C-alpha cells in the first residue's frame, strides 16, 4: 500500500516518495511477468541485489529515483512515470487509455452503488408484498367468518348494523385483494447477484508483455 502524499510534512515527502517508488517498481516488473533476475540487466545493474534493494519497501534510498533508473523502467516496463512515483494508480503511459480506465472504474463504482440501492428497494417491496399477502389472507378469513356467522344466525340480516358490517368487510376484502394483485405483478423479485463488474480495471488481468531489450 502506498503512502499518500497529501498532508505530508516537507521532511516526510522524500521518504514517502522513495517508499512508493520501490513498491511501484516491483509492481511494474510483475506486470511484465519478469523476475528480478530477468529484469536487473535492463537498468545496467551487475546483479539483482541492487534491484532487490530498490524494490524493498524499507530501503528508502531516494538516490535511485534518477533518470538511469526511471527512464528504463518507463520504457521497458511500459508504465508511466506518474505510476512509478505513486501519483497515478493507472500504469499505462498512454494518457487516453489511462483516462478511459479511470472512467471505467468510476462507472463501476456508480453501478455498484446503484445495485446496492436496488437491492434495498427490492427488499422493501418484497416485505411490503409479504405484508399485503398476509393482510389479504386475514381479510379472507374475516369474510369467511362473517359468512359462517350469517349461516348460523338466520336473523343476521335483521340485526342493527349488520348491513354496514357486511359492506365494510366486503370493501376491506376487495381493497386487500386489489393491492395484493398489484404488488404481485412485480414481486417476488429474482435474486440480485453481486459481481465484479466487467468495467472494473484490474491490472492483475493484464496481458503479460515481454519488455523490449530482452
Report on this model:
The chain starts with 9 loop residues before the first helix and ends in a 30-residue tail after the last helix. α6 (95-152) packs antiparallel against α7 (162-184). Helices cover 61% and strands 0% of the residues. The chain is built from 7 helices and no strands. The longest helix has 58 residues, at 95-152.
Q: Characteristics of this structure?
A:
214 residues, mainly alpha, 7 helices, rod-shaped, disordered C terminus
Query: Mean pLDDT, nearest integer?
Result: 76
Oligomer: single chain
**Secondary-structure element order, as H and E?**
HHHHHHH
Output the radius of gyration.
34 Å
Discrete helix count: 7
Task: Give the terminus-to-terminus CA distance.
Answer: 29 Å
* Uncertain parts: 191-214
The tally of beta strands, per DSSP, is 0
Share of residues in helices: 55-70%
Q: Which structural class fits the helix and strand makeup?
A: mainly alpha
Q: Strand count, sense and closure of the main sheet?
A: none
What is the global morphology? Answer: rod-shaped
Report the β-strand fraction as a percent range.
under 5%
List the SSEs and their pairings.
Elements: H1 10-31, H2 36-39, H3 48-55, H4 67-77, H5 81-85, H6 95-152, H7 162-184
Helix pairs in contact: 6-7
Give me a quick take on this structure.
By secondary structure, the chain is mainly alpha-helical. Helix content is 61%, strand content 0%.
Amino acid at each position: 500500500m502506498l503512502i499518500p502524499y497529501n498532508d505530508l510534512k516537507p521532511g516526510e515527502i522524500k521518504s514517502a516518495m522513495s517508499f512508493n517508488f520501490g513498491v511501484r517498481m516491483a509492481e511494474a516488473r510483475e506486470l511484465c511477468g519478469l523476475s528480478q533476475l530477468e529484469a536487473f540487466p535492463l537498468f545496467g545493474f551487475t546483479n539483482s541485489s541492487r534491484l532487490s534493494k530498490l524494490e524493498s519497501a524499507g530501503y528508502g534510498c531516494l538516490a535511485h529515483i534518477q533518470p538511469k533508473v526511471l527512464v528504463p523502467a518507463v520504457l521497458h516496463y511500459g508504465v508511466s512515470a506518474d505510476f512509478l512515483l505513486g501519483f497515478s494508480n493507472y500504469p499505462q503511459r498512454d494518457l487516453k487509455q489511462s483516462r478511459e480506465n479511470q472512467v471505467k472504474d468510476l462507472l463501476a463504482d456508480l453501478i455498484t452503488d446503484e445495485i446496492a440501492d436496488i437491492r434495498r428497494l427490492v427488499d422493501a417491496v418484497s416485505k411490503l408484498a409479504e405484508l399485503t399477502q398476509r393482510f389479504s389472507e386475514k381479510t379472507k378469513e374475516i369474510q369467511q367468518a362473517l359468512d359462517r356467522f350469517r349461516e348460523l344466525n338466520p336473523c343476521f340480516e335483521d340485526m342493527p348494523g349488520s348491513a354496514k358490517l357486511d359492506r365494510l368487510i366486503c370493501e376491506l376484502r376487495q381493497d386487500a385483494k386489489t393491492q395484493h394483485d398489484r404488488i404481485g405483478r412485480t414481486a417476488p423479485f429474482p435474486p440480485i447477484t453481486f459481481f465484479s463488474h466487467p468495467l472494473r480495471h484490474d491490472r492483475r488481468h493484464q496481458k503479460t508483455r515481454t519488455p523490449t531489450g530482452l
